């Protein structure tokens, strides 16, 4: 598959109609061309850090909701391939999760336990900064929905109504500001691992 230029904007709705595989491949192509990635996910684990079992559970919900072709295996494969770029060739990834993401029940209990163990391992990955916003942390901005920013110039937002790519630089700057405000409420390192471990004991 030929990689699109970084400024190419895919039609997410058309891709989704073809199945989860094309959507996840488009996200993989974007990650491949990104040098600096930041992402915020308040209620789900970021796709970059998902286990195959967790990703399959997430994509199953997508297929069931939208009635798209059932190509979950292809979608999972493309989503898993994103992780290979973490720290590669100087790339940096900064991921913020809401504490709720550690508790949102997707799949069987063993799926959640495997996912939480994956997050514990991820805290030591070179090139990755993983922050968790505690449920009781004081927020400086409305938590809103999840989004990601590629190279400080392109924002991807996903929701029930579909996905949106934002490249207007004034709007991008707003998302960058939001991420900075959310970051001030997050914990890292051992404090983040403690939250993950606590969720693991009750999963």
If you had to describe this structure to a student in words, what would you say it looks like?
There is one protein chain. The protein is built from seven helices and six strands; from the N terminus they run ααβααβαββββαα. The chain is globular. 34% of the residues are buried. It has helices at 12-17, 20-32, 52-66, 72-81, 109-122, 169-183, 189-202; strands at residues 36-41, 92-98, 128-133, 147-150, 154-159, 162-166. Residues 1-6 have low confidence and may be disordered. It has one domain: Endonuclease, Chain A. β5 and β6 (162-166) form a beta hairpin. α2 (20-32) packs parallel to α4. It has a six-stranded mixed beta sheet with strand order 3-2-1-4-5-6. By secondary structure, the chain is α/β, with parallel strands linked by helices.
Give a short synopsis of this structure.
The protein has 203 residues and is an alpha/beta fold.
Low-pLDDT stretches: 1-6
Alpha-carbon distance between the termini? 39 Å
Number of helices: 7
Q: Approximately how much helix is present in the residues?
A: 40-55%
Percent of residues in β-strands: 15-25%
Arrangement of strands in the largest sheet: 3-2-1-4-5-6
Structural class: alpha/beta
In the CATH hierarchy, the architecture is 2-Layer Sandwich
The level-1 CATH class? Alpha Beta
What would the average pLDDT be, to the nearest integer? 91
CATH topology category name: Endonuclease, Chain A
Q: Count the E strands.
A: 6
